Amino acid sequence: MRLKNKVIIITGSSIGIGRTMAYEMCKQGAKVVLNARNAERLDRTYQEMKKVGNEVTAIAGDVSKMADCQKIIDHAIEIFGQLDGIVNNAGISMEGSVEDLDSEVFRKLMEVNILGSIYPTKAALPYLKKTQGSVIFIGSAAGIRGIPNHAAYSTSKMALTALAESLKIELKESKVHVGLAYVGFTENDPEKTIYDKDGKIIPQPSRDFIKAESPEKVAKRIINMIHKRKFKEVFTTLGKLNAFMNRFFPFVVEPILSRNYYKNKKEE
Ligand SMILES: NC(=O)c1ccc[n+]([C@@H]2O[C@H](COP(=O)([O-])OP(=O)(O)OC[C@H]3O[C@@H](n4cnc5c(N)ncnc54)[C@H](OP(=O)(O)O)[C@@H]3O)[C@@H](O)[C@H]2O)c1
Questions:
Q1: Taking burial as the number of CB atoms within 10 A of a residue's CB, which of 31, 35, 55, 82 is the most buried?
Q2: How far from the centroid of its chain's Cα atoms is residue 65's Cα?
Q3: Confidence (pTM)
Q4: 88-144 pLDDT tens trace
Q5: What is the distance in A from the centroid of ligand 1 to the CA of 91?
Q6: Residue 93 and residue 96: Cα distance in Å, rounded?
Q7: Which of 46, 119, 127, 153 is catalytic?
Q8: Which architecture does CATH list for 7-267?
């Protein structure tokens, strides 16, 4: 019960990694605030989480809108009276080259993945300072090195490094913990969707060619980061290898990414 009675908001927690994190945190005694835009799907998860045993609440809202983020934080305070952590998990991905990608998709990714991490954090800080709580950003291995055909996603996730690094120093005196998880390939929720190059929402294409980590393992790693107040952590062996090679041998990484990109292009 490492999180006993800790109040934690998880944005984007109706499905996927966020939902699994909510489940694991409830099991560890946390009071969890669920969030997502689709109220019906959120309610379905809320009903499931209530059965896990601990206190849970849910509030629909779009993290790319500051007013919604303020409502999410206000709701958490109204129900539980305090805030010990926020996991900025809501995010969306895409596929398409910079040249082909509809420019609206760039805008949407920056709004959800970057502003959608900044706005909830800003609204949460006054309360996190009182509890010396945690702010967690959910980054990606794609935020370590720019990935062809995923530039919008990589750009948005790389921005989280700058955000976390700046914030960590700004919050040093108030002792609020800042963590950035570079999550690797994770088994997808069957309901997961992404943007295609024309800005259409499509089911996440299969990624069977890569060994993915289970959402349970990802959730436990994130909980561990909160518990140990870790700053940065790269998940999965492939993610760690990517970080190491990109740092010390970037000239090896580029041809690998390049070969995969042009091979996939030919197969399309
Ligand atoms: N899956 C992976 O392999 C992987 C790898 C590295 C990093 N990540 C990162 O991990 C996080 C979770 O990924 P996932 O694969 O679990 O995603 P997912 O299955 O697609 O779930 C995304 C969740 O976020 C919510 N959401 C999306 N946009 C939102 C918005 N504007 N406001 C509030 N909620 C929003 C969705 O519900 P609604 O649509 O109802 O809002 C849903 O609950 C993301 O930040 C992702 O970039 C994932």
A1: 35
A2: 17
A3: 0.97
A4: 999 999 999 999 999 999 999 999 999 999 999 999 999 999 999 999 999 999 999
A5: 4
A6: 10
A7: 153
A8: 3-Layer(aba) Sandwich (3.40)
